[in-house]
Write a structure and sequence with these properties.
By secondary structure, the chain is an alpha/beta fold. 22% of the residues lie in helices and 31% in strands. The protein contains six helices and 13 strands. The protein is globular. The relative contact order is 0.19.
Length: 258
Amino acid sequence: MIYVEERFEGNIEEVNLLLLGDTHTGHPNYREDIVDAVLSEISNRQNGRIFLMGDLTEMALVNSVGDTYTQEMTPHEQIDYWVDKLEPYKDIIIGAIMSNHNERAVRTVGINPIKMIMQRLGIEDKFYGYSVVIKWAFNKGTLHSYHFHGSTAAKTNAGIVRKIKKMREIVDVDMYFMAHTHRLISEDIDIIDFPDPRNMKLRTKRYYYINTGSALAWSGGYAEMKGYKKVMLGYPIVVMSGSKGQQTINVDKQVFLN
């Protein structure tokens, strides 16, 4: 796990963070229109930033789970696709992490697709391995987020949120971001008091748990084959605002019919 900072100078109104992942490019059910829409949206927002949550590429290989015969791009073409797609946005990409479909290529042929994408974009220093904690410093205050692709067999929203909450056993931050399950879920009802010894007061901390969505359609794919219910597609844009001691977090879901 790595600890990094994203700092904004001067007084700003807000920071907008798009959490993009589980696109599975190469799979015939990939919805490029959703990705184009959310990239356009974040590029038009104040202080827009993008974090890549994993599984951008399908990476169906001959000895892996997945169907190499229906995959619409070769693994190399999938990497090329994302380099071209993200080139106009590379200056606002703040990080990327590993994921299970990415691991297929790492284990089989020793190639790391997301690391290659970041290298070719000239931002390899923002590739953070399996997980990262980010300090958001703005308006003389800070918030923290923990980013992890995730690993769970949970099929219900409650089960998925329980898995995200277990990330608090690893590190204590304000926002927990997990991908993997293709659900766009947010919960923010947990609070905890903690002592502020400097001012001899008890402060209250609120936790945000977010599962970061998908652009993979249901019909004709793995979800239909397994009999999973349809869910809304899309991604969250996390809006951070306010000043020291009064910073707020809101989740703006960019949703699309499946």
